[in-house]
Amino acid sequence: MDFHTLRFVVVAAILYGVFHWAYHQVPDTTLRTVIYPNLIGHSAAKVINTMTPERKVRVKDNTISSNKAVLNIVRGCDGSGVWFMLMAAILGFGAKFKHLLVGVVLGTIAVYSINQVRIVGLYYLIEWNRNYFPMVHTYFAPTLIIFLIAAFFLWWTRWSMQDSNQER
Fold first, then answer.
1. Domain count of the chain?
2. Residue 72 lies in a domain
3. Is the Cα torsion angle 92, 93, 94, 95 positive or negative in sign?
4. Per DSSP, which regions of 3-128 are E strands?
5. 47: number of CA atoms within 13 Å, CB side?
6. CB 153 within 8 A of CB 86
7. Among 7, 63, 67, 103, which is disulfide-ready with 90 (CB 3.0 to 4.6 Å)?
8. 3-class secondary-structure state, position 79
9. Residue range 116-144: average pLDDT?
């Protein structure tokens, strides 16, 4: 393993640990009553109500509900873990500042968007057939998110390296 690879692994691992530590300093009450409804719940409810207005989905704290389904957003189901992993990888990669900025901004948008699609999909899955929820929520959705974010990271590293080489 060369120095750059070792540096990347060590820096990314440390950052990932720091991000998780900081995340667990946020009280559950703050997540449930402020962050989840405002950053995740209301936008997911707006999508659901736009696609299927008869659902009349509402948000109360960390719960998205209607007469047909109830979905609770809890710690770890907010996309934070994959976002921490991506940010640690981007920051640990050692790219130029402008590339870091692009990676952080586009990566954040990607994780948020993918997680919102997951939340909306899980709501409809509960409504359609809640028996599939545990399997999709625990295995399929997280695996798909990791693959999509890994693809984003691969794209970003290649773009960053090509752009850096073209500047020389």
1. 1
2. yes
3. negative
4. 58-60, 63-65, 70-72
5. 15
6. yes
7. 103
8. coil
9. 95
